[in-house]
Specification:
By secondary structure, this protein is an alpha+beta fold. The protein has helices at residues 14-20, 22-27, 29-35, 50-56, 60-63; strands at residues 45-46, 71-77, 80-87, 94-97, 107-108. The protein has 5 helices and 5 strands; from the N terminus they run H-H-H-E-H-H-E-E-E-E. The protein is globular.
Length: 110
């Protein structure tokens, strides 16, 4: 189950639940992109949670040449749902307004 009352979780595998949440898909272009993605013959893509990102950074094949900096997670700020967690190597990430431009990196269940 998601970790926060806002409906999003930050733990490993919470990205799958966050992406499956229809309300989040409707309110987040980044989540919608992953939820509706069909690529490489697969349609089970999700926008990773904060925990998924941290776990997958050690998996080089998970990133397949995509950006490894400045991308969105599906984890919302528990005290402000207009913000989501953004991974950044420059400042270890943090919550940013969802209107900020960043990369989207969809993952598949590993």
């Amino acid at each position: 189950f998601p970790s926060h009352d806002t409906g999003t979780g930050e733990n490993i595998d919470d990205g799958i639940l966050n992406t499956a949440n229809a309300t989040l898909v409707a309110n987040s272009p980044a989540i919608a992109l992953c939820a509706n993605l069909v690529a490489g013959g697969h349609s089970d893509w999700f926008l990773p949670s904060k925990g998924d990102i941290n776990a997958s950074l050690s998996c080089v094949s998970c990133w397949s040449g995509g950006p490894m900096d400045n991308f969105w997670s599906s984890s919302e700020n528990p005290s402000n749902t207009t913000e989501a967690f953004k991974h950044s190597q420059a400042f270890s990430g943090g919550y940013m307004p969802k209107t900020t431009m960043n990369f989207v990196h969809c993952l598949r269940k590993w």
